Amino acid sequence: MKIELSGDFLKAEECKGGEICEILDNGEMAEIQSPEGKVKKVINFRIKVEGEDKTYTPNRATLTNFVDAWKDESDFWVGNKFTIELANVNIFGKVKKSIIGKPLLESK
Fold first, then answer.
1. What's the Cα-to-Cα distance from 33 to each of 2, 41, 92, 98, rounded to whole Å?
2. What's the domain count of the chain?
3. Which end of the chain has a smaller Cβ tally under 10 Å, C or N?
4. Which range of residues forms the domain containing residue 63?
5. 51 vs 77: CA distance, rounded Å
6. Residue 35, by phi and psi: left (phi above 0), alpha (psi -120 to 50) or beta?
7. pLDDT digits over 30-76, tens only?
8. Cα–Cα distance between 52 and 91 in angstroms, integer?
9. Mean of pLDDT values over 5-29
């Protein structure tokens, strides 16, 4: 299924780095499709960043950071906070500016 990425998704272009975000839910699985037709499973979280609710799709580096800090069950992530760092990441074979989430707190 092709997911249209529109709406209130947090985008790297909107960030300056250093923002503090709070995870508001335990996430929802989705599939995205590359321009070449590759399908990839992702997880979308509702977060609060600078007073606004956004949808955030963390990349593999961010998910690894979250698992290391807060365990491998996303139910434990709700209410935890992280900071945004910006980095160039390979996304479907193209290098793009991306958000890397760095946990602020250990698991509650």
1. 6, 9, 9, 18
2. 1
3. N
4. 12-103
5. 19
6. alpha
7. 998 877 888 889 999 999 999 999 999 999 999 999 999 999 999 99
8. 26
9. 90
